[in-house]
Amino acid sequence: MNPVFPFIMITENYSELVLEHVRRHIDLDKTEETFFISLLQLQSIKKKDFLLQVNDVCRYESFVVRGCLRMYSLDHHDTEHIVMFAVEDWWIGDLYSFLMQNPSSFFIDAIEDCTVLQLSKKNLDLLYEKVPKFERFFRLIIQNAFIAQQQRINQNLSLTAEERYLYFIAKYPGMEQRIPQKQVAAYLGITPEFLSMIRKKLSRT
To answer: CA-based diameter of the chain, in Å?
Structure first.
């Protein structure tokens, strides 16, 4: 079952964070902004707690206002394969499970204490009905996520481990300091020992 977190009142500060994010893609009037905020739930997630577990249905898309989460799967050797990290100003969720309401193949847990704004499938459908311009907003979000996924697949096929690491730290500055080395390695598809060797080599150049 999906975990139940304590419900928290959405503060003006958190509202403004997500509205600033939305305004970069679409223009809303005050009534539309207020309606959008009314559909969100603010949740607090402790470090190492799960936002989603395998075989649960993803009930929410979550916008991160504080903290860092990761989305990953386990193979039959219990080896972690990290699909993505999400920090402030990012959305996270198993989109396939969320849209189709099918069981998820992924875990999502908190690397740090986190606060997220959550939008349910029911409220997303209501948002599309009442404020159609949000269809464009989420189309752009999904489009950008798809492009990022394609780029990552291409990097995994064409770049060396060192090149993938350099791309990671260039594209996501500061994130490496927030994430355990073994999880960075799992994201890059290498062992922590090999990542350590890469970092030592680069420190000498």
So the answer is: 57
Structure tokens at 97: 């499970």
Under 8 Å between Cβ of 68 and 87: yes
Distance (Å, whole) CA 163 – CA 103: 35
pTM recorded for the entire structure: 0.89
Q: Three-state SS for 55?
A: coil
Q: What is the H or E stretch that residue 116 is in?
A: strand 114-120
For tokens 């190492």, the residue is 48
Q: Please answer whether residues 184 and 176 qualify as being in contact, where contact means their C-beta atoms are separated by less than 8 angstroms.
A: yes
Averaged over successive runs of 10 residues, the pLDDT of the chain (205 residues) comes to: 46 88 97 97 96 97 97 93 94 96 97 97 97 97 92 92 94 90 94 94 86
Compute the distance between CA of residue 194 and CA of residue 30 in angstroms, rounded to an integer: 52
| DSSP output for 145-156 | HHHHHHHHHHHH
Burial 61-100 (b: 16+ CB within 10 A, else e): bbbbbebbbbbbeeeeeeeeebbbbbbeebbbbbbebbee
Tell me the three state secondary structure of residue 15.
helix
Cα distance between residue 1 and residue 4, in whole Å:
9
CA distance 149 to 83: 9
